[in-house]
Design brief:
Layout (H helix, E strand, L loop, with lengths): L7 H4 L3 H19 L3 H9 L22 H6 L15 E5 L7 E5 L1 H17 L7 E4 L7 H13 L2 E3 L6 H11 L3 E4 L1 H13 L11 E5 L5 H11 L2 E8 L4 E7 L6 E3 L4 E6 L13 E7 L10 E7 L14 E2 L10 E3 L2 E3 L1 H9 L4 E12 L2 E10 L8 H19 L4 E5 L14 E3 L6
Parallel strand pairs: 3-4, 3-5, 5-6, 6-7, 16-19, 17-18
Antiparallel strand pairs: 1-2, 7-8, 8-9, 9-13, 10-11, 11-12, 14-15, 16-17
The protein binds 5'-O-[hydroxy(phenylacetyl)phosphoryl]adenosine.
């Protein structure tokens, strides 16, 4: 097979040169970071007062890890390194409380990020002749605009269809001859089920490829989508703190995700000891973003479990490959691609005085999609035999939750004292989805 490279020199740079490049970028990053209130204190405490205090890549270890909690504490501008009038965009992801984590970009940051997404798309064999339907949420979520700009940079015709509404998605695919789509893996499975339901034949579509990410999925799921839809599916990994998509992506070998090491420095640590794990072992992925000036983030604990393949890829790229992400080291749930912390649910329901003390969150598969049910007890003053006020309460809880978590949950009300109480640490979450990852 012949492989195409978006940036041939950078994608095949010998490791020594790649690391030298990373060091230059790291020095710049430290300089940007020193302009932010958040990092000024941290870096000074670590004895780093200038970019030149970083002499080797090993010096990165002198900088403490950053967590989602840190980013929230720095909200809104504690991590901003440039004047606000140079910022051209922000993206945000939900936090564990009402405070989101917000990432700012200047014009060059957007151009660099777009370059990494374009490189990723190109690595799968796409080119300007492709018609790309971006079936993912636009807005504050990075998946929409990130892939949109990346697709345009490749020169593809980009259809900004957004997620949902499968009937309209099929119409767009047929009208414009879509050859490549981007979606969460669960939405791709849903699309396939709907195709059968609506009698859309595979032959009426020109689909060849899909980019699937934003949530964990197994190799079996990939194969299933590929066989059902008769397309190639490429795994796409990213997170809003590191710009969004375009952090790591599979090439045509489909054997691990190339982490773009001219944009990101990766470490794999043991989440308990915080020490690096031996090469090839899995642990928690820690990332430093070398390609963004406006919001510098160093050594971010992603909470994602992964590790690095040790042998090189046959595509010739020198950037190391991550194992498929197998889960998280915290309690964050990903429901149809939307991130959710159980504490967000707790905060909403516990602020309602009619709600009792005990609750439970259930996640399961309904068909191919994830389904969230929130079971909560009512307070002792609420009568379970009076359906009207109960239904009104249920609806109010559902709407308030939906407004906060952007997922439409099913709500069940239970009599006070009727939900099982666990001895010791409460187990609030029952994730009944098949563990095939
Ligand atoms: O999900 C960015 C993205 C958009 C990636 C579109 C790929 C495609 P967040 O909303 O901040 O950003 O969620 C990031 O999602 O830390 C992982 O836990 C999970 N995740 C993302 N991609 C994958 C993947 C976007 N391919 C969080 N496999 C990350 C497994 C993934 N988990």
């Amino acid at each position: 097979m012949t492989y195409q490279y978006w940036n041939p020199r950078m994608e095949t740079l010998p490791r020594a040169e790649l690391e030298a490049y990373q060091l230059t970028k790291l020095k710049d990053l430290v300089r940007y970071a020193l302009r932010t209130p958040f990092y000024q204190k941290r870096l000074h405490q670590a004895g780093i007062k200038d970019g030149e205090d970083i002499k080797t890549l090993g010096d990165l270890k002198r900088i403490p890890f950053a967590t989602k909690l840190d980013l929230r504490a720095a909200f809104p501008y504690g991590l901003l390194s440039i004047p606000l009038d140079e910022v051209v965009r922000l993206h945000a992801s939900s936090g564990t409380t009402g405070t989101p984590t917000t990432i700012y970009f200047n014009k060059e940051d957007i151009i660099r990020w777009t370059g990494f997404v374009a490189r990723s798309i190109y690595a799968t064999g796409c080119n300007k002749t492709d018609v790309f339907q971006n079936m993912i949420t636009y807005g504050l979520f990075t998946g929409g605009l990130g892939f949109h700009f990346g697709g345009e940079a490749v020169g593809m015709l980009v259809i900004p269809s957004g997620s949902g509404n499968t009937t309209r998605q099929f119409k767009l695919m047929q009208d414009f001859g879509t050859t490549v789509v981007h979606a969460t893996p669960s939405f791709l499975l849903h699309v396939e089920a709907k195709m059968r339901e609506e009698g859309i034949t595979r032959e009426s579509l020109k689909l060849k490829r899909a980019f699937a990410g934003a949530e964990p999925y197994s190799e079996d799921t990939r194969r299933r989508i590929e066989e059902l839809l008769k397309i190639d599916v490429y795994n796409s990994y990213g997170l809003s703190e590191m710009n969004g998509p375009g952090v790591a992506f599979e090439c045509q070998c489909k054997n691990g995700l190339h982490l773009w090491e001219d944009g990101y420095i990766a470490e794999i640590i043991n989440p308990d000891t915080l020490e690096p794990v031996p090469e090839g072992e899995t642990g928690e992925l820690v990332l430093t973003c070398l390609c963004r000036e406006a919001t510098p983030i160093l050594r971010y604990r992603t909470r994602d479990r992964s590790g690095f393949y040790t042998e090189p890829c046959s595509c010739g790229r020198t950037h190391r490959r991550l194992y498929r992400i197998t889960g998280r080291t915290d309690d964050m749930l990903i429901i149809n691609g939307v991130n959710l912390f159980p504490s967000q649910i707790e905060e909403v329901i516990m602020s309602m005085k009619e709600v009792g003390n005990n609750y439970c969150i259930v996640v399961e598969k309904e068909g191919v999609l994830d389904r969230l049910t929130v079971k909560t007890e009512v307070g002792p003053d609420i009568f379970m035999d009076d359906a009207r006020p109960l239904n009104a309460l249920k609806e109010r809880i559902r709407k308030t939750l939906q407004a906060c978590i952007t997922i439409n949950p099913r709500v069940e009300l239970h009599e006070s004292g009727s939900l099982p109480v666990s001895e010791g640490k409460a187990t609030r979450v029952q994730d009944n989805r098949p563990k095939d990852v």
